[in-house]
Amino acid sequence: MSNATTAHSYSAILVMDSRKVQSIIRPSSPLGGWSRLYSAGPYYLDMSFRLDGDDLRLLGRVVSRHKQALDGGTIRLCELGGHTTEHDLEPTGQFTLTLSSRQAYGLEVLLDGDTVKVGRLELR
Known about the structure:
This protein is an all-beta fold and 124 residues long. The chain is built from no helices and 10 strands. Strands 1-10-9-6-7 form a 5-stranded mixed beta sheet, with no helix packed on it. The protein has a 5-stranded antiparallel beta sheet with strand order 2-3-4-5-8, with no helix packed on it.
């Protein structure tokens, strides 16, 4: 009998977009920022896009529904032109990415053999 876990690939489903919801808790930014919550299998992906001076930042956190802490992970950002960058998640599941432009991106999170995919992430 093997103790190996099976890797899964999950497509993220948008649960909440601050640009479409009036909220006191998470107001959308008049400067074009937003917050979004995605659900993907046993994970939640909570992300915010912010303008920080001249920098474009994507901040987020990956949370597992089944355990307290994630055991490492990588976030992969794919630009439309094909350039891909990878960044380690913090032990808390948090990440901060500085983006080169307001184009659309592909986003994948690699966790314990699982992959969470956000198909097309629009920053507008």
